[in-house]
Amino acid sequence: MKTLPIQPVPSDIALGRRLRALRERRHFTLEQVAERTGFSKGFISRVERDLTSPSVQSLVT
């Protein structure tokens, strides 16, 4: 099993921050996004906090 980093992943893109801002602008909760995408709330939360990077397939979904 892959270990999760403790600190945010450095990135010039700040994908997680952008995804969280988009979710909040649309007034979606983590639970609503999880239900619509099939991903867990924990996974979405880790992506938004830049603790993990989603695969390209995850982003397409």
Automatic annotation (TrEMBL):
This is HTH cro/C1-type domain-containing protein. Residues 19-60 form the HTH cro/C1-type domain. Gene3D superfamilies: lambda repressor-like DNA-binding domains (1.10.260.40). It comes from Corynebacterium ammoniagenes DSM 20306. Keywords: DNA-binding. It comes from the Bacteria. Pfam families: HTH_31.
